[in-house]
Amino acid sequence: ESAEKGGYEHFMLKEIHEQPKAVQDTIGAYVHEGAIDFSETGLSDEIFAGLKRVYIVACGSAYHVGIAGRYVMESLAGIPVEVDLASEFRYRDPILEPDSLVVVISQSGETADSLAALRLAKEKGHPVLGVVNVVGSSIARESDYILYTYAGPEISVATTKAYSTQLIAMYLLAVQAAKIKGKIDDERYAGLLAEMGTLPEKIQKTLDDKERIQWFASKYANAKDIFFIGRGIDYAISMEGSLKMKEISYIHSEAYAAGELKHGTISLVEDGILVVGVLTQSALFEKTLSNMVEVKSRGAYLMGLTTYGNYNIEDTADFSVYVPKTDEYFTTSLAIVPLQLMGYYVSVAKGLDVDKPRNLAKSVTVE
Ligand code: G6P
């Protein structure tokens, strides 16, 4: 097993470091000579041209990919997107409109609820696109269209590299839909693809800063509660950051839409509690910052996660983490990396079984 870990202490750390390659491989599978080529998936230009609505269905981290994907697809391609937890979708008798596509995201392709959601959509006569990592899995076999992610085998229960490749799948779908629907011109299309191509090296740059995160994680390893706050895409990032933290470190953590804090959660903020503010979206920066000021005045200790250049975060945050700038639609791919590392290092500091957290399974094939 130690050989399989390639010199890393845990599979999770190895897989975190494999993200530049996994992202590169997934982009490389579908972007050829400066254009998206979906021929391998079965998706045609006609499908995108006629697409009126997208329903994304998934569980766990794949659901968080769906939330991030919704912001990108709605804003870039102008297509309304609904995102559902598969376990909810399958029992709520969903109304699926014509000319819609159901997108089921799953690393394993075997998650029971996601598979049941797929079958329900098909029963209702709706085409399903599977975004799947494991070749030949049930969801891959039963989907009408299949967009494989190229993360390679993922061993650690807490997903990292598969999540990152699923994000790329969402970006590619959004950019392609935007182009075919005439929402972006050729220049913007080329610019987005070029920017996507820089993500592997920018993820690598983020990984190179890991010692600072390790230091901070060891300081907060005994925290009882952690809150993650953000708006828009930053809320989607917060959800995944919070899940990474709780699943492997056993620290209670929650993600909140920053604007919702004042409707209840702020009553939980007390002296010394750690609040992580995610601020990668320039239009929402000041809004989330003001929420951070609110929790700070109630005694919270603040970590701010933003992009290089936003150094005024240091006037408010007690500890700041920066990721490289990219197109704001793609920031999830970079900002998630320090949060994965933070969950990992807290778990290690507590001496927990990082790769096999208690009560959790890599692939949940029962309801
Ligand atoms: C489990 C895993 C998660 C994963 C979820 C959905 O809970 O621990 O990492 O996000 O299942 O799995 P899937 O294989 O459908 O992506």
From TrEMBL:
<comment type="function">
    <text>Catalyzes the first step in hexosamine metabolism, converting fructose-6P into glucosamine-6P using glutamine as a nitrogen source.</text>
</comment>
<feature type="domain" description="SIS">
    <location>
        <begin position="216"/>
        <end position="357"/>
    </location>
</feature>
<dbReference type="GO" id="GO:0006487">
    <property type="term" value="P:protein N-linked glycosylation"/>
</dbReference>
<protein>
    <recommendedName>
        <fullName>Glutamine--fructose-6-phosphate aminotransferase [isomerizing]</fullName>
        <ecNumber>2.6.1.16</ecNumber>
    </recommendedName>
</protein>
<comment type="subunit">
    <text>Homodimer.</text>
</comment>
<dbReference type="GO" id="GO:0006002">
    <property type="term" value="P:fructose 6-phosphate metabolic process"/>
</dbReference>
<dbReference type="GO" id="GO:0005975">
    <property type="term" value="P:carbohydrate metabolic process"/>
</dbReference>
<dbReference type="GO" id="GO:0006047">
    <property type="term" value="P:UDP-N-acetylglucosamine metabolic process"/>
</dbReference>
<feature type="active site" description="For Fru-6P isomerization activity">
    <location>
        <position position="362"/>
    </location>
</feature>
<feature type="domain" description="SIS">
    <location>
        <begin position="43"/>
        <end position="183"/>
    </location>
</feature>
<dbReference type="GO" id="GO:0005829">
    <property type="term" value="C:cytosol"/>
</dbReference>
<keyword id="KW-0032">Aminotransferase</keyword>
<keyword id="KW-0963">Cytoplasm</keyword>
<keyword id="KW-0808">Transferase</keyword>
<keyword id="KW-0315">Glutamine amidotransferase</keyword>
<dbReference type="GO" id="GO:0004360">
    <property type="term" value="F:glutamine-fructose-6-phosphate transaminase (isomerizing) activity"/>
</dbReference>
<dbReference type="GO" id="GO:0097367">
    <property type="term" value="F:carbohydrate derivative binding"/>
</dbReference>
<keyword id="KW-0677">Repeat</keyword>
